[in-house]
Design a protein that fits this description.
By secondary structure, the chain is of the alpha/beta class. The protein has 4 domains: 158 residues, no CATH class; 120 residues, Rossmann fold (3-Layer(aba) Sandwich); 100 residues; 78 residues, no CATH class. It is 39% helix and 23% strand. It contains 21 helices and 23 strands. A 6-stranded mixed sheet has the order 12-11-13-21-22-23, sandwiched between helices. Strands 17-16-15-14-18 form a 5-stranded antiparallel sheet, covered by helices on one side. It has a 4-stranded parallel sheet with strand order 2-1-3-4, sandwiched between helices. β3, α3 and β4 form a beta-alpha-beta unit. α1 packs parallel to α4 and α5 packs parallel to α6. The termini are far apart.
C-alpha cells in the first residue's frame, strides 16, 4: 500500500507565481529526501490591503478577494502543521505581503534575488552547490535533490541529463514555466517518481469538452468519429514518446486534458489541476491522509432512477462505521445540498443524480467603462432557485434564495480565453465595471433563452444546484464521487477550488447501469485499497461499453480512506466539529462590519445549531452536559431576536 511523503515543515515558502526560477533555486536548498517541501503560489495583487468589504465592487475586487482567501488558506495550513521554523517569502510585492496577516508570528526570510539566497538561506542549510543553466532549472532541481545538494544559476554550466528509472510512478507535467511546474517537480521528487515535461496547451479546458460533446453526438448518430480523432491528435503528440506500461501509475498535471481516455487507462491514472491550486491540493492529500479525519458522509439522490447505487452506498458506509447524512428523495433539495456540503464536517460526498446541461440566457449588453470607452459584452446567465424552509415571507411562504452563474462569452467580438482576446490588452480594471452592470435591462441589446455551452448542474428533487460553493465540509478536505453525467468539468473545478482533495467525475453522459455497477464496485473496495485502486477495479463494468474510460480521478495515487472505529465515535466526532465550527462563525460574526456578510454568517450559525439539536442532541448532551445545551439554545434564540430587532 503506497504511503504519502512526509511534510517538511521546517520551511514554509510563499512565492510570487511568476518567480519560477527563483523559487526553484530556493526549493533546491530546502528539499529533503523523501519529504515534500511546503511551497505555495501567490498571484499578483493589484492593491495593498484596505478596509473595504470583499463585496465592494471596484477594479480591485477580484484581487482583494483572492488575496484574502489565500491568507485564510495559508494561515489554516500553518496551524495544521503546528507552524514552521522559517517562513520564506520569495519575490513578493508590498501589496502581496500586506494581505498576509500572520507574518509577525514567524521568523520571516525575504528573498528577492538569487544573491539573497546565498546571504540568507545558504548559511542555514550549508549545502554543496551544483551549477545549472536557467533553462534547465527543473532538471537541476531533480539532480540536486537526488544528491542532497542545491543549485546555482550559471549559464555556462554543463547540460544536465536525467536518467529515468522507467518504473514505479510517473508524473507528466504541462510545463507553463510557472511555480506550478516547480511544485509538480518537487512532488515527483518526494515520491521518487520519474517526471516528463510536455508542451502546454495554448487554449482553455473547454476545448476538450467541446470536442467530447461533438464526439458523443457523432457516436449517437452513427457518424464517423472525427472529433475523437481531433482530440487524440491534440493530446497524443505530446505523450506518444512515453512507454506508460513501464510504470505502476501516472499522474498528469494538466489544465484539463483527458489523457486517461486517450491512453485508455492502460495503467492507473490520476490528475492534478494546474489551474486549481496544485500546491494546496497536494498538501491536503498528504495532511488529511492521517490527520483531521472525520468519519462522516453525505449521500445525495433525488431517486430519479429505478435502479441506482444509493442504498448500497449508504449501507456500505454504515458498515464501515460512517455517520451518513442521507439527502434522499424529497430531502435531496438544492437548499439542503448547499448547506450540508458547506457546513457538515464530512469525508465523503456521493452524488447520484442527473448532470443536466444548464439552461439560461445569452445576453448582449452595451456598457461604458470608467475611462469613457464603450464595450459590447456577450455572456451566458443562468439562475438556480433554492426555497429555504426556515425562512418565511409575511404570507408564510418559504423565501427563495437565487444563485446566478455568469459565463463570459465575448467582449467586443473577441472570445474570452483566446489568443486574440489576450492581444487586445484590456486593463483588468474594466472587468469589475462590466460585471456590476449585470443584468441591466436598459443596457441590453439582445437576450434569448438557450442551452449554455460547457455548463452542467446537479439536478435536485426540485430545481437544480449550480455546483457553486463558497467553502466545503466545514474546512475539511473530502472525497467527492459525482456519479452524474458530464461531471468532469465546471463543477469539478468549483469543488476542487474549495479544497476537495479527491474528485471522481464522468467525461460524458453515463449509462445508468454502468454508473450504479461501477459505484457499487468502488465502495466495496474503498476501505481496503486506495481510491485509485478502487476506481481502477470498478472500470471492469464499463469495459467494452460506450462508457469505457468515462471516469476521471483528480487526486493522488496514495490517497486512501480508513474505516471508522464505531458509529457512536463518528457521531460524537461530528458533533465536536460542528461545535467548533459554530464557535468560529460566532467569532467571525463579532468581527464583521458588513451587514450582508453578517446576515450570511447568522444563517450558517442557525443551520449549525438546528442540525446539532435535530440530529446530534444525544452526543451534545454527552459532550457538554444539560446546562450547556440550554445555554447554547439560549444563545441561538438571542441571536435570532437580535437579528429580528
Amino acid at each position: 500500500m503506497p504511503s504519502p511523503p512526509k511534510l517538511n515543515s521546517t520551511f514554509f515558502c510563499i512565492a510570487n507565481r511568476e518567480q519560477s526560477l527563483l523559487t526553484a533555486v530556493v526549493s533546491s536548498h530546502i528539499n529533503c529526501k523523501d519529504e515534500y517541501p511546503l511551497i505555495f503560489s501567490y498571484s499578483e495583487v493589484t492593491q495593498a490591503k484596505d478596509l473595504k468589504s470583499l463585496n465592494t465592487r471596484d477594479e480591485h475586487q477580484v484581487s482583494r478577494s483572492r488575496a484574502t482567501t489565500l491568507d485564510i488558506d495559508l494561515n489554516n495550513t500553518l496551524k495544521r502543521i503546528g507552524g514552521c521554523e522559517y517562513l520564506i517569502l520569495v519575490g513578493l510585492s508590498e501589496n502581496q505581503k500586506s494581505h498576509l496577516t500572520f507574518l509577525e508570528a514567524y521568523n520571516v526570510i525575504e528573498i528577492s534575488t538569487l544573491k539573497d539566497i546565498d546571504t540568507f538561506i545558504q548559511p542555514i542549510i550549508a549545502k554543496e552547490i551544483i551549477p545549472c543553466k536557467s533553462n534547465q532549472i527543473y532538471e537541476g532541481l531533480q539532480l540536486a535533490s537526488a544528491a542532497g545538494k542545491a543549485i546555482s544559476i550559471e549559464e555556462n554550466a554543463k547540460v544536465i541529463e536525467i536518467i529515468k528509472r522507467n518504473k514505479g510512478g510517473l508524473i507528466v507535467v504541462e510545463n507553463d514555466n510557472s511555480i506550478s511546474t516547480v511544485i509538480a517537480t518537487n512532488y515527483a521528487i518526494s515520491i521518487n517518481a520519474d517526471i516528463e515535461f510536455v508542451e502546454p496547451f495554448e487554449f482553455h479546458e473547454k476545448v476538450f469538452l467541446e470536442l467530447i460533446e461533438l464526439w458523443r453526438k457523432e457516436v449517437k448518430n452513427g457518424e464517423e468519429e472525427k472529433s475523437l480523432k481531433e482530440l487524440k491528435a491534440l493530446i497524443y503528440d505530446k505523450i506518444n514518446h512515453i512507454n506508460f506500461l513501464n510504470y505502476d501509475f501516472v499522474t498528469f498535471f494538466t489544465i484539463g486534458a483527458p489523457y486517461s481516455l486517450i491512453i485508455q487507462n492502460i495503467i492507473p491514472t490520476t490528475y492534478v489541476g494546474l489551474k486549481l491550486n496544485p500546491d494546496l491540493f497536494i498538501f491536503n492529500n498528504i495532511c488529511f491522509q492521517d490527520n483531521f479525519i472525520v468519519d462522516s458522509a453525505i449521500v445525495f439522490s433525488p431517486r430519479f432512477f429505478s435502479i441506482e447505487e444509493t442504498d448500497f452506498v449508504v449501507n456500505k458506509l454504515k458498515e464501515n462505521h460512517y455517520d451518513v447524512n442521507e439527502l434522499i428523495k424529497e430531502d435531496a433539495t438544492s437548499h439542503n445540498l448547499d448547506y450540508y456540503v458547506k457546513e457538515l464536517p464530512f469525508n465523503i460526498l456521493h452524488l447520484c443524480s442527473h448532470g443536466n446541461q444548464s439552461e439560461g440566457s445569452l445576453i448582449e449588453e452595451r456598457y461604458v467603462d470608467q475611462y469613457g470607452n464603450e464595450h459590447i459584452f456577450e455572456y451566458f446567465l443562468t439562475l438556480s432557485l433554492a426555497p429555504d424552509p426556515n425562512k418565511k415571507s409575511q404570507k408564510g411562504e418559504p423565501l427563495i434564495k437565487v444563485s446566478t452563474k455568469i459565463f463570459p462569452k465575448k467582449l467586443n467580438g473577441f472570445s474570452f480565453r483566446t489568443k486574440e482576446f489576450k492581444e487586445q490588452n484590456y486593463p483588468s480594471s474594466i472587468f469589475p465595471k462590466m460585471f456590476t452592470t449585470l443584468p441591466v435591462k436598459e443596457n441590453q441589446i439582445s437576450s434569448k433563452r438557450t442551452t449554455i455551452e460547457n455548463s452542467h448542474e446537479i439536478a435536485c428533487y426540485r430545481f437544480s444546484h449550480l455546483g457553486l460553493f463558497s467553502h466545503l465540509a466545514a474546512g475539511h478536505s473530502p472525497l467527492i464521487f459525482n456519479n452524474t453525467c458530464w461531471s468532469a468539468y465546471d463543477i469539478k473545478n468549483h469543488l476542487i477550488a474549495v479544497r476537495a482533495r479527491a474528485y471522481i467525475g464522468t467525461l460524458w453522459n453515463i449509462d445508468n447501469s454502468v454508473a450504479f455497477k461501477s459505484a457499487e464496485s468502488f465502495y466495496s473496495a474503498l476501505f481496503d485499497k486506495t481510491i485509485l485502486e478502487s476506481l481502477q477495479e470498478s472500470m471492469v463494468h464499463s469495459k467494452n461499453t460506450k462508457d469505457q474510460n468515462i471516469y476521471i480521478f483528480y487526486g493522488l495515487h496514495f490517497t486512501k480512506l480508513k474505516k471508522g472505529s464505531s458509529l457512536e465515535n463518528s457521531k460524537k466526532d461530528v458533533t465536536i466539529r460542528l461545535l467548533q465550527s459554530l464557535d468560529t462563525w460566532k467569532g467571525n460574526l463579532s468581527r464583521s462590519e458588513d451587514d450582508s456578510i453578517k446576515e450570511n454568517i447568522q444563517d450558517l450559525i442557525n443551520w449549525n445549531v438546528t442540525l446539532i439539536l435535530k440530529k446530534y442532541r444525544t452526543e451534545l448532551l454527552e459532550i457538554v452536559g444539560k446546562d450547556k445545551v440550554i445555554e447554547i439554545i439560549q444563545k441561538y434564540l438571542q441571536s435570532n431576536r437580535e437579528k429580528k430587532a
